[in-house]
Amino acid sequence: xxxxxxxxxxxxxxxxxxxxxxxxxxxxxxxxxxxxxxxxxxxxxxxxxxxxxxxxxxxxxxxxxxxxxxxxxxxxxxxxxxxxxxxxxxxxxxxxxxxxxxxxxxxxxxxxxxxxxxxxxxxxxxxxxxxxxxxxxxxxxxxxxxxxxxxxxxxxxxxxxxxxxxxxxxxxxxxxxxxxxxxxxxxxxxxxxxxxxxxxxxxxxxxxxxxxxxxxxxxxxxxxxxxxxxxxxxxxxxxxxxxxxxxxxxxxxxxxxxxxxxxxxxxxxxxxxxxxxxxxxxxxxxxxxxxxxxxxxxxxxxxxxxxxxxxxxxxxxxxxxxxxxxxxxxxxxxxxxxxxxxxxxxxxxxxxxxxxxxxxxxxxxxxxxxxxxxxxxxxxxxxxxxxxxxxxxxxxxxxxxxxxxxxxxxxxxxxxxxxxxxxxxxxxxxxxxxxxxxxxxxxxxxxxxxxxxxxxxxxxxxxxxxxxxxxxxxxxxxxxxxxxxxxxxxxxx
Length: 493
Description:
This protein is α/β, with parallel strands linked by helices. The chain has a 6-stranded parallel sheet. Strands 9-14-13-12-10-11 form a 6-stranded mixed sheet, covered by helices on one side. A two-stranded parallel sheet has the order 1-8. Helix 6 links the parallel strand 4 and strand 5. The protein is globular. The N and C termini lie far apart (73 Å).
């Protein structure tokens, strides 16, 4: 039976309220400000929107002139995934480094300081932390974004992160439900599939989400993954069995459910963003994240109209859309409440954490370098979540400590010979990222170590491959502070 909304204005406003779009530029475009006046309640920020903390604060103030309780969201995990420091590298190590230290108080402190910096810029919603258990070491999209492979460790650090972030008045969005860690496919490109049975899923994937819910996570982000043991037909983002039955009913979660980016190929390439958005809200999602790739008014209009049309056609219950919109407004009200200030800025907490996360193998004792080395970065293609805008490695940090340090980036079958030739007679520092996932990288490292056994190896991904080299340093992530911590060790600073 067709359902007609009794108030078209209310229906249209609710459809706008559940959208979480992005835009281009470092100031808010007119169309976005107009939509905020019409009912839009959330805006997503990406690296392209941020030039400096001062500019970001001005941008969020501009948004709040139109709507004082607007949710301003960002993908700021720290570590490899940073938008706040997209052009310099993060001041905070990522989850894998924090998991390697395994000090929940430190994780809380790092998240609180990150939250303080976001709040100071007017950002009140963070698409973090990643609660994925990295049970598949070949995972192409999670890796160092995970606290680790042990569910209990991931659970306690997820809860600590949520607590720290929200102490600053910034809503945590725990992701990617029901868990993206056991995938071999990046959902930016296709639909990943997890074939674990329900018992394994309950013990492994769901443990960190239970901890996040107990810690009061204000939001949970769905994953575009197919989990046949939970729903054989639809990916989690579009599954009522997963979002409504499992997350809401079984796990007792009452906060906001946000989708991962709807323009990702796992959804857009299979269902299309309009149909996908309707199915997601019908399944139990409350906010539709879009804007990483599609960032214009036409996208907002298309999704708004698709939701309105679905209600009018009886495909989406009007009360489900109204409930979703009210959950968005409820979170907006929470972020607008006064928050006790995080006690004092701690600008060095990230560096302290990065130093503690280092795992050093070989060369005991190690004689620090005094002459400038050659840094050979064996660089894989960055996944979309990380992006290729953010610098990484140890070259810049070593150059500051050992002036005259030279560097080059190498990839593919010729990486080894090219790096050897470029290094000349200098001591080589080889920087790798997930050596275990890239045969060409392992082969290049083999060649470097055969020709130059005194080569120092810095692994800035998941340290799954066996340590080798005259000195092997595992940083557990590629943030700027992780690079600095490794450089300090190499140079004896």
